[in-house]
UniProtKB/TrEMBL annotation:
This is Pantothenate synthetase. The gene is panC. Beta-alanine binds at Q61. Pathway: Cofactor biosynthesis; (R)-pantothenate biosynthesis; (R)-pantothenate from (R)-pantoate and beta-alanine: step 1/1. It catalyses: (R)-pantoate + beta-alanine + ATP = (R)-pantothenate + AMP + diphosphate + H(+).
Length: 279
């Protein structure tokens, strides 16, 4: 596997691949890789000639300095895992080079960023859109792969690709879970054993909400789910939403045939996790 860290090297390399007529599949990540990431690499490989993975803990998308500082960083182990699954190119830029020009780009995703992650992490999607735009320019992929775990991020990136006319296809893959249902996430590594034991309650809460929606109106089903979660003292729910799965706007009632997503964010101690299920 080829490892590149300078912007000019990746730009030249992907330019050469394009000239050779190769199809490039791209998986952007922040590292501390798990089976969720590897499922995206495998999907990219199966549909493209060359798979590029980037690992970059992007400072400008963090709204919490401590979260940035403590974000798990395991570059050597990540490189090993990527080589094992046959990733062709690993792009590992430094923050200094990525943000040398100190460009402060401002995006406006309208209502899409005024709910859930956008509402609770000010500036987050601006930072995601900035880095994803830069990465798309550098890597020039034909396809880019994202996980459903970050459902709102996928919607924002879809909007970005449309607004800036990026010539690529976006692909979203399902959430890979631990055996006990916990959505795999790099931040899971930061959980204490006690918090880790409680963490599957988040997925259970989404399943509980899903079953309550069979018989109850949305607000009542949400209230019962919040009560269920409150019984676990260490879990601090930030939001629980029933939203339209495309616009991500909260729903007042369920309409026949509408795609629906049940989403939550919660803290276990200092660690903030998100999860969702599609209904
Ligand atoms: N469990 C999962 N299953 C499938 N895809 C996932 C999963 N977790 C993350 N991804 C996807 O991998 C890509 C890179 O995500 P990222 O590196 O932020 O990992 P992460 O595990 O989501 O970390 P964290 O949530 O702690 O930031 C994103 O498109 C994300 O949606
Ligand atoms: C898309 C991404 C790599 C941008 O930093 C990040 O938000 C992530 O890992 O989901
Ligand atoms: N996985 C989304 C990136 C973030 O939490 O900042």
């Amino acid at each position: 596997m080829l490892q590149l860290s300078s912007l000019s090297d990746i730009r030249q390399h992907t330019e050469m691949l394009r000239q050779q007529g190769k199809r490039i599949g791209f998986v952007p990540t922040m590292g501390a890789l798990h089976e969720g990431h590897l499922s995206l690499i495998k999907a990219a490989k199966s549909q493209n000639d060359i798979t590029v993975c980037s690992i970059f803990v992007n400072p400008v998308q963090f709204n919490n300095a401590e979260d940035y500082k403590l974000y798990p960083r395991l570059p050597e182990k990540d490189a090993q895992l990527l080589a094992q699954v046959g990733c062709d190119v690993l792009f590992l830029p430094t923050a200094d080079e990525m943000y040398k020009q100190k460009a402060k780009l401002t995006f406006d995703f309208g209502e899409l960023e005024r709910v859930m992650e956008g509402a609770h992490r000010p500036g987050h999607f601006n930072g995601v859109a900035t880095v994803v735009s830069k990465l798309f320019h550098l890597v020039k992929p034909h396809q880019a792969f994202f996980g459903q775990k970050d459902l709102q991020q996928f919607a924002v990136v879809q909007q970005l690709v449309q607004d800036l006319s990026f010539d690529l296809e976006l692909v979203c893959y399902p959430i890979i879970r631990e055996e006990d249902g916990l959505a795999m996430s790099s931040r899971n590594r930061r959980l204490t054993p006690e918090q880790r034991a409680l963490a599957p309650r988040l997925y259970q809460a989404l399943q509980f909400l899903n079953s309550k929606l069979e018989t109850l109106p949305i607000e009542e089903a949400k209230k019962e789910t919040e009560t269920f979660l409150r019984s676990f003292e260490e879990i601090k729910l930030e939001y629980l939403e029933v939203v339209h799965a495309k616009s991500l706007q909260p729903l007042e009632y369920l309409a026949e045939g509408e795609p629906v997503a049940l989403c939550l964010a919660a803290f276990l101690g200092e660690v903030r996790l998100i999860d969702n299920i599609l209904r």
